[in-house]
Amino acid sequence: MESAILTSKYPALELKNVEKRFDSFVALQGLSFSVPQGAFVAIVGPSGCGKSTLLRLIAGLEATTDGEIWLDSEDVTEASAGERGLAMVFQSYALYPHKTVRENMAFSLKIAKRPKAEIESRVAEAARALQLEALLDRLPKQLSGGQRQRVAIGRAIVRKPKVFLFDEPLSNLDAALRAETRVELAELHQRLAATMIYVTHDQVEAMTLADQIIILNAGEIQQMGTPKELYSEPKNAFVAGFIGSPKMNFVSGAIRDATFESADLSISGLGQFASGASTLGVRPESLMLAEKDKGIGQIEVSIVEYLGDESVIHGRLGDGTPIILREKGSVEFNTGDRVSIDIESIDALHFFSPESGERIVPSPKSPSRG
Amino acid sequence: MLSYSKDQRKFVLLMLLPAFGMTAAFFLWPTIYNIKNSFTDLSLLGLRDGGRWIGLDNYIELFNDSDFKKVVFNTLFWLTFVSVSIRLVLGFAIALFIESQLVRRLRLTVPLRMAALLPWATPDIVAVTVWKQIFDGRTGAINNKLVEWGFIDQPIVFLGDPSYVWPSVITIIVWNGLPIIVLTMAAALQTVPRDLYEAADIDGANSWIKFWHVTFPHALPALAVLGLLTTIWTFNNFIYVWMSTSAGPGTFSNVLATEVYLQAFVNFKLGLSSAIGTFMAALALVFGIIYFRYVVTKRFGGLM
């Protein structure tokens, strides 16, 4: 596959203060970000956060209420979907049911009145890349879900678009096929070196595929960053809770004299954090079992999920706050057992302001960081 | 495929028997009786004596009669082909308008669907009677307005003038028969996935391309079924022509259904009338077979 030549000095895509209202409902607000040439950017968030609307604004399927959208060096805010030169893979695939695979893939080039020989060679090229050659004369209804998905991607590739847009492309596939296609998409991105914007509600897809992740909630960007940044330096409690599976544990309490105290937990040695009311955030993988009456506190076990290489222990603190922890191997607990827990390291702890939800950044001169 | 045991099969047959009996008594027997009569010279005045067997004479008479050829032409071309084509094209166009983005944005979709229903709620006899008054040569609303606005000097006898009679009858049929096309096509249009229009937008398609590559292929099965059904319903319709023109002026707008009536109850030739009826049934059977093959065997090509 011929790869796009990435010589442009402009970002592949840039949004400037984009806003979208439906009547009085504000779907998206003050969105500004830019996507470098060739990047793979995932947009994630819970359902109703506006991520699909955002993708449709970029695609030109919805008009912005305010703000500008730039593709490369062009302001496309007012341009129609067809003029933007993008390709989109829909959640439903949206293949034309009356056209064969070949006709589906060739349709946009035909509309653009490209020479016949060029259309044929581009379709053949894409079909080879996606192993669709044997299916070219079939109708979509004669294909499996996975094959339809590949045709939808093929239809996008054929256009050699400036930017690929994906709207939850894997959500109609079964788990095994989803994992497989995820890898294929990552390979495709490398081979084409094209810019890709990918909307999903699945944070695992976002973490594994993307160079950059945008986390959206209630129509606003919570954080944009690399998967590693989002995981280890979440800007607020929402991001911290959204990234990572199982979810981060949150315990409300307060830091006083370098010690975090809640109804059931006590963690000392927190000199780098300012005193005051704060919510502790700690990931299940940063918690571990401790010897009886040692560690930071006790939980009452409610259920244990055994996964083979590890066990996920669900429990509650005395005040009912749920706690999840991951432990290597298998554990033998019954419901109602009280077990002591500990933290792996103070560096793995996050504290959030109970009012704003913002993460409280530790002071850099902390002694524990040496 | 479902399979039935012997007992189940018996039970199913038993349950079907009453309906089959009714059909046989009221449809099958009259059909056979009619075919038998078509080979006789049975007269309405000689019912007691019965008819004499004359073989194919009735049919030979029909096919050698140039007036009958005109009746067949009137039936197939004017009554059926023209009125069905206009209904399909106009009905589809109105459905497209009702389901369009513009109408949806103005929130007029539902009121317009309701309005489209109105002519359908009017029984055909009532519709024809009212239209007859509207078309009337002396007191009709259309003539009044045309004269008042100065388009014509003399009123036009719409239903009595050979140059106007078919357009006038077809106007009545279209008005009365349009709603079912509009509503069915509107329903068919609602089943087109919106994603496809968006995919076509991204592929750079304009409205014209979207219509031919997305809308039309989705609408075609419904359009084909409607076309066949309306053809069958219109082809043997007696009311429209008889109520509006009584096959006139003279026999200018005579069609097969009215010819059956005229031969039987005006000319008293029951045998000949039966032959025409049999001929009509044979023609209807052709449409029926096409319809059956299309709908039952192809099952709408899996698209509806």
CATH topology of chain B: MetI-like fold
Going by CATH, the architecture of the largest domain in chain A would be 3-Layer(aba) Sandwich
Helical percent range of chain A? 10-25%
Largest sheet of chain A: 6 strands, mixed
Number of structurally distinct domains of chain B: 1
Helix/strand-derived class of chain A? Answer: alpha+beta
Question: What does this protein look like?
Answer:
In chain A, strands 6-7-8-3-9-10 form a 6-stranded mixed beta sheet, sandwiched between helices. A 5-stranded antiparallel beta sheet of chain A has the order 13-12-11-14-20. Chain A has a 5-stranded antiparallel beta sheet with strand order 15-19-16-17-18, with no helix packed on it. Chain A starts with 12 loop residues before the first strand and ends in an 18-residue tail after the last strand. The longest helix of chain A is centred in the middle third of the chain and has 18 residues, at 175-192. Chain A has 2 domains: 13-236, 3-Layer(aba) Sandwich (Rossmann fold), CATH 3.40.50; 246-369, OB fold (Dihydrolipoamide Acetyltransferase, E2P) (Beta Barrel). Chain A has 8 helices and 20 strands. Residues 1-5 of chain A have low confidence and may be disordered. In chain A, 23% of the residues lie in helices and 32% in strands. Chain A has 370 residues and is of the alpha+beta class. The two termini of chain B are 21 Å apart. Chain B is flat. Chain B has helices spanning 6-37, 57-64, 66-98, 101-105, 109-121, 124-135, 141-148, 162-190, 194-202, 207-235, 239-245, 256-266, 270-297. Chain B has one domain: MetI-like (MetI-like fold, Orthogonal Bundle), CATH 1.10.3720. Chain B has 304 residues and is mainly alpha-helical. Mean pLDDT of chain B is 88; it is low at 300-304. The interface between A and B is medium-sized, with 25 and 19 residues.
